[in-house]
Amino acid sequence: MVEVAILSGSASDAAIVERAAAVLKEHGISYDVQVISAHREPDILDEYIKKSDCKVFIAVAGLSAALPGVIASRTHRPVIGVPVSGNLMGFDALLSIVQMPKGVPVACVGVDNGENAALLAQRILSLK
């Protein structure tokens, strides 16, 4: 069983994923890392969410940043979105994550801030 699943929509987000993983590792929190696009691989994403026994999802996503919202729409577990900088300095991804519709809650950390996502996951896990 892993406590945190770190998903990114693209392999190009690896640096942010690695920073989040490093913080989790430092705190002794088990994690799994996957690259699954919400747009290009929706069936694979659905299957991963269903089979995962994690307690918290961290979703690293740029541009339209669909990944965090798609995950949150398919689970009741906490989802933390990490917007990725891009053409609009990450504002496009940031706005996509913070403007989820009612019933699809996603926590959001700063642009490219995988470290804070991991620290927030740690705090969520400490509530048990």
CATH architecture: 3-Layer(aba) Sandwich
Radius of gyration: 13 Å
Query: Which structural class do the helices and strands define?
Result: alpha/beta
Question: How many beta-strand runs?
Answer: 5
Terminal CA distance reads 16 Å
What CATH calls the topology is: Rossmann fold
SSE string, helices as H and strands as E: EHEHEHEHEH
Large-scale geometry: globular
Strand neighbour order, sheet with most strands: 2-1-3-4-5
Q: How would you state the average pLDDT, rounded?
A: 96
Sheet of most strands: 5 strands, parallel
Indicate the percent of residues in helices: 25-40%
Please give the CATH class.
Alpha Beta
Query: How much of the sequence is in beta strands?
Result: 15-25%
- Total number of helices: 5
Which regions are unreliable across 5 or more consecutive residues at pLDDT < 50? none
Q: How many domain units?
A: 1
